[in-house]
Amino acid sequence: MTAPALLSATGLCVAFPGRRGRAPARAVDGVDLDVGRGEIVALVGESGCGKSTLARALLGLVAPTAGRVLFDGREPGRGTRALKEYRRRVQLVLQDPSGSLNPRHTVYEAVAEGLRIHGLRGDERAAVAEALARAGLRPPERFLLRHPHELSGGQRQRVVIAGALVLGPELIVADEPVASLDASVRGEILALLLRLRGELGLSALVVTHDLGLAWNVADRVAVMYLGRIVESGPVEEVLTAPRHPYTRALLSVLPESGAEPVVLSGEPPDTSRIPAGCRFHVRCPVLASGAAERAGVARACRGTELPVLPGGPDSRVACHWAAAGT
Fold first, then answer.
1. Which InterPro entries does this UniProt record tie to the protein (predicted)?
2. Which helix (H) or strand (E) holds 112?
């Protein structure tokens, strides 16, 4: 029997009011997503697909317009006290450590801030030092009185991670955690996430546009396009045998893929005017090449909407052409 997910979203939707009478922008348009205990899930997609909005909705930073989020089997309350407790257990790590850290605060103050906000008592200095050490800043005493400008980019990101760890969270939501770092440092931060999972049993949802990062760090991957998950499953299955044309296009640009790069035509449609049928069909190379017509699914691609994929651990794909067994 499968253990219940630590974090679970069902039918989650987030819409923003349209300007000047336009239809609402459906940034997240029906998402089921699970993150298990001790599991790292990568949420992958190009800029504007809705992945950061989904992450913020999971954290309670954006109010969903439909659907629900469960953490540890319960729906987080909407009251101030309930949200405060939830956000202690689920911490956000942003992509830009320079923007996340107050330049006037020392490393000690930056990491201790969460303890003070949540009113957690005890030996504050010992807790800060332990969090810095776990984040790879050793010996921590060397860093306590430094300011952000005295640190490298990788060290600043470790301080941000330490600020999350000091609260003892069960899950970290990392939004593009290495996007602003040099290539030489990226591997160190990814190795740190894996080590924290091993040492603390920490779960993580890693939001990224980089499928190469997902390959290196994740257990499962969920590929998002225009507000929905279009393919998900164990990372080895999805990235070695992708079934959705969008996933294939994302993979094709990785140098190690060895495939001919697939250049998608145009830009993703406006989220206030999501096309009928498969939402990817207006850019789909399979449809453009005639392969969908030969498989007998071209009409369905253009006019039949696909269901929301369930959020479990099995491989899933929202694609008429893939479902036809081609």
1. AAA+_ATPase, ABC_transp_ATP-bind, ABC_transporter-like_ATP-bd, ABC_transporter-like_CS, Oligopep_ABC_C, P-loop_NTPase
2. helix 107-117
